[in-house]
Amino acid sequence: MASKLGGNDDEAIVDINITPFVDIILVVLIIFMVTATYIVQESIKVNLPEAATGEATEDSSLAITIDAQGQLYMDGEPIDKPTLRAKISNEKQLAQKNGADVVCLIGADHAVSHGEVVSIIDLVKQEGIAKFALNIEPVEEKNIRMKEANTASLESSE
Questions:
Q1: Which residues in the chain belong to E strands, given as ranges?
Q2: Beta-strand pair 62-66/103-108
Q3: Where are the domains of the chain?
Q4: Cβ atoms of 133 and 56 closer than 8 Å
Q5: How many CB atoms lie within 10 A of CB 62?
Q6: Strands 103-108 and 131-134
């Protein structure tokens, strides 16, 4: 029988070797970090107007966005008005074939003029899209009260 020098071989091995476990976890972490950069979806920076009353909308068929410079985007891709009109018409025809409704979600930066947003709504309605929604940034109840208090204090100081 083989034995250790000066040791007692009657003791059971109770230590768990966690080195392989740590190695595997580090490899998984590295894989996650590398793939996470591909998962992140690029988005258009838009400062949406705030509103206290808003509802969640179902996934829209079309997402139209206007940034602060007035550039139009459809589903994240830059587009001009004539091309937008044609794509809306195509989407409506495809939806009619499938028996579905086209829903359009319109988002505009806070700096975009009201007239520009109305012109996009008009374009959408001219193409026969009856269902559309305006994208907003929800306001928390606490922020609403603070804005009301600031407005009241400004009016009383005048």
A1: 50-51, 62-66, 72-74, 77-79, 103-108, 131-134, 137-138
A2: parallel
A3: 50-138
A4: no
A5: 20
A6: parallel
| DSSP assigned state of 61 | S
Q: Read off the pTM.
A: 0.54
Residues in the chain: 158
Helix (H, G, I), strand (E, B) or coil at 127: coil
Task: Note whether 139 and 51 are within 8 A (CB).
Answer: yes
Give me the tens of pLDDT residue by residue for the chain, a chain 158 residues long: 454 555 566 777 778 888 889 999 999 999 888 887 666 555 555 555 666 665 554 444 788 889 888 899 988 889 999 998 999 888 888 888 877 778 888 888 888 888 898 888 888 888 888 788 887 777 665 565 666 666 655 555 55
Tokens of 144: 């609403």
**Torsion (CA) 49, 68, 81, 118 in degrees, nearest 10:** 30
CATH architecture for residues 50-138: 2-Layer Sandwich (3.30)
Longest pairwise C-alpha distance within the chain: 99
Report pLDDT for 145. Answer: 61
Q: Residue 146 is encoded by which pair of tokens?
A: 């603070």
